[in-house]
Amino acid sequence: MQSLREQWFGNVRGDILAGLVVALALIPEAIAFSILAGVDPMVGLYASFVIAVTISFVGGRPAMISAATGAMALVIVSLVKDHGLQYLLAATILTGIIQVLFGVFKIARLMKFIPNAVMIGFVNSLAILVFMAQTPHFFGGSLMTWIFLLATIAFVYGIPYVIKGIPAPLIAVVILSVVAVYAGFDLNTVGDMGSITQSLPSFFIPDVPFNLETLSIIFPYSIALAIVGLMESLLTASILDDMTDSDSDKNKEARGQGIANVINGFFGGMAGCAMIGQSVINVKSGARGRLSTFVAGAFLIFLILVLGDYVVQIPMPVLAGVMVVVCITQFDWSTFKYAITAPKKDVFVMLLTVGVVIYTHNLAVGVVAGVLVSAMFFVAEISRVDIIEDSDMFTVKGQLFFASTEGFMNYFKNKGLTEQEVTIDFSDSRIWDDSAVGALLKINDLLEANGNTVHFCSFDGSSATLIAKITGKSLPL
Fold this sequence. Notes:
alpha/beta; Transcription Regulator spoIIAA; single chain; 20 helices
C-alpha cells in the first residue's frame, strides 16, 4: 500500500505538470498515427486516451506513456485497407488478450534473447517506415506544401532554444495552422482525412462475425501487434529504468498493455503500446509516478472535447513535418559507426532486420527474421569443437551438442586409431543433449571395434547426469 501511495502521490506537482505537457504533445502524433493507419483521427485520439488512463492503473512501469503509436499503426495498415475499422477493433481486442497471456506466462524474460543488433534494426526500420508513410503528404505537392513542411521542421528544431516549457511540436502546429487558415492557403487538412467528434468514447462490441473466418483474418495481425507492442513497451520500460535508476515489473507491464488494449478495442481505439519519445519527455519534465500518465490521458480527452473544431483545420504538411522530426529523432544515427566497428555478423543481422521490415512492412516479421539468423550465427560459432592430441590423450575443447557432434565424430573416424589405449578428456567440454551422448556411444563402439581401449574422463556433474540418464549406465561407459 505504501508503494502504491508513493507511485500515485509521491510527486504530485511534478507528475501533473509533466502529464499536461505530454497531453499537449500527444494530439498531433495521435492524429498523425491515425492517418498513417488509414483510420479516422478519433480512432487514434480515443486510443491514446483510453490506453493512457488504463495503463496508469495496471502498468508495471510508473511514468511511462502508452498510446497510439507509429509502430502499431504500420502493422494495421493493410488490415484497415482490406477489411475496415471493425476488424481493426476486433484485432485490437485479440491483441490485448494475447499480451495478457504473454504476461501471465512471463514472456518478458524472452526479451533477453533479442540481440542488440535486432533492437537497433527494429528502431531504425520503424523510423524509416514512418518516414515513408509521410511522403504522400508532400511528394508531388504544391510549393506551399513544401514550405509548410520545411517550416514545421525548422520550428520544431528551433523553438526549444527560445521556449522550453511547452512542446515544440505543439507550438509549431498552432502557429502554422493559424497562418494557413488566416492566409487561406490551399492545403490538405486533418478534416480532409476524417472528422473530430467532440464526445467521450462509448462502449460497443465490434461488428464482425464471431467465427473462424474472422479469427483467421485478425489473428496474424494480432500476434504481430502483440509482439511489436511488447517489444517497444519493454524497451521503453528498460530505458526509463536506467533514466530513473529504478526497476519495473516487465511481466506486469505486459499484462497491463494487454488489459489496456482489450478495453481500448471496446471503446473504438486502435491498438497501442508505450511511446519511447513521449515517455522520455514525461520523465525529463519531472514525472516519476502513475499520476503523470493518468493526467496525460485525462487532459488529452479534455482537449479533444474543447478544441475539436480547431484540430480539423491543422494542415497535413504540418503534421507530416512533425512526424519527419519524430523519424529523425528516433533513428539511431550511431548506427553508421556501429556498422564500421561491430562484428560483420552483427551488422548483417541489423541490416537484415531493417531490410525484411521495409520489404514486408511488418516489424514483427523483421524481428523474428533477425533473431533466427542471429541464433544461427551463434550456433555456428559455438559448434566449433577442437580436439588437442597429446600422445594417447585427446582433450575436447568446446560444447558438444547436435550441431557439433559431426565434427567430433569425423575427427576420430579420420584418425584411424588401432590397438591403443585412448583417453578422451572432457574437462574443457560439456555434454548438452542426446545427440552428444549418441556421438560418444558411436565413437566408443568405433574405437573398440578397431581394437582400442577407450576411457572417457573429466565430465562435469551435469554431463555425467545426462549420460547416465540417457544410457542407463554409470561412467565409464
